[in-house]
UniProtKB/TrEMBL annotation:
Its main location: membrane. It is found in: Microsome membrane. The lineage of its organism: Eukaryota, Metazoa, Chordata, Craniata, Vertebrata. Belongs to the cytochrome P450 family. It comes from Spermophilus dauricus. Keywords: Endoplasmic reticulum, Heme, Iron, Lipid metabolism, Metal-binding, Microsome, Steroid metabolism. One of its GO terms (molecular function) is heme binding. SUPFAM superfamilies: Cytochrome P450. This is Cytochrome P450 family 7 subfamily B member 1. One of its GO terms (biological process) is bile acid biosynthetic process. PANTHER family: CYTOCHROME P450 7B1, CYTOCHROME P450 FAMILY 7. Gene3D superfamilies: Cytochrome P450.
Amino acid sequence: TQGHWITGVRPGEPPLIKGWLPYFGVAFNLQKDPLGYMKFLQTKHGDIFTILLGGNYITFILDPFQYPLVMKNHKQLSFDIFSRKLSEKAFSIKTSMRNEDLAHDLHVAYQLLQGRSLDILLENMLQDLKQMFEPELLKTTNWNTAQMLTFCRSIIFESFLLAGDKEKIISELKDDLFKYDDKFTYLISDIPIELLGNVKALQKKLINSLTSENLAKTQEKSEIVQRRQEILEQYLVQDLEIGAHHFGFLWASVTNTIPAMFWAMYYLLRHPEAVEALRDEIDCLLQSTGQKKGSGFSIHLTREQLDSLVCLESIILEVLRLHSYSSSIRFVQEDFTLSSENGNYCLRKGDLIALFPPVLHGDPEIFEAPEVNKFYKIVNDGNRS
C-alpha cells in the first residue's frame, strides 16, 4: 500500500484523500466526527473514494446498491485476513489464527447464541439482573445519583461477569477495558502497539485477568463461554492464549451493548411519551401472562415475549440507526477491478475496502428528518409497519 504515496492515483482508481499529515492521513478528521466527515467526502468525491488512515489505504463504498459486490466477492476480498490481523494485534490471539480446525470449532460454537441456548442465556441474564437490583431496592431509602454512562457500564459488567470477590474484580476489569477501548481506533491502524503508550500493558493485564485460573473465580459461565473454553483446552492452547480469546469475546460483547443501552435510556428520559408507551406495552404483556410487578414477585419473560414488544424493538432500532458507526471491512488480496453500474474502479492488493451504513441511515431521502429519533414511526397501532 506504500505505492499510493509514491504514485498517487492511477487511472481507474477512486479519488484518494491523503490528508495533510503523513501516515496518519485523515485519522483526526474521522475521529472527531465520523459521520459528518464521511458525508463531506461523499459530497465532494462521490460514493466511492479512498482515504489514508493510520498507514492503511481504505476504499469506502457508500452506495448501498454496491454492497453485494463487496460482500459476495470472497476470492479477492477477504474478511478472514483482516480479522486475523486485528485479533492478533488487538487481543494477542495467535494460535487459532494458524489452526483452521480450531477456528472452525470456535465458529461453530456461536450456534450457542441461537435457539434454546439463547433462551437459557436470556433467562440467566434476567435472573442476574434481578439478583443485582432487588437487594439494592429493598435496602435503599434515598435516591442515589450517578452519570448515566457510568450506570450503564456498571449494569452491563455486573450482569456479564458475576464474581466471588465481585466489586474488586469488576471495578478493575471495567476500568482497564474502557481505558483500552479508548485507544482501539489506533489498534486498527498499522501503528505498532508498543508505540501506543500503556496500551500493551493494559492488554497484558486484561488477558491475565481472564485466564482459566482467574475466570474460575466467577460464579458461573455461560454455555458459550464454557464451550469456547473446552475447545481451546482440547487444542492444548496455553492459558494466556485462552485469556486472550476471552478478552476478545468480552470486548465485543460489552463495547457494543453499553452504547446501545446508554442511548436507549437517553432517548427514553428525553421523551416521556416513549416511556409511557413502553410501560403500557410491558404492563399489557405482564397482565396477559398473569404476572405482577413489585417486591416478592418474579417476572419471567421468554424470547418470544420480548420479541412481541414492538415499542421496545422500535426504540432500539432507532438508537442503532442514529448511533451505530459500525463498518464492514475486507482485505484486498489481489489487484482487481470492482465493476458497478456507475463505472469500474481499480483496487490495489493490500488495501482495505469498507462499507459504512451510517451514511445510509442519515440519508433524508430514506429517513425524513434523519437526525431525529422517531421510534414511533416504526410502530403502527402496536404492530410492525
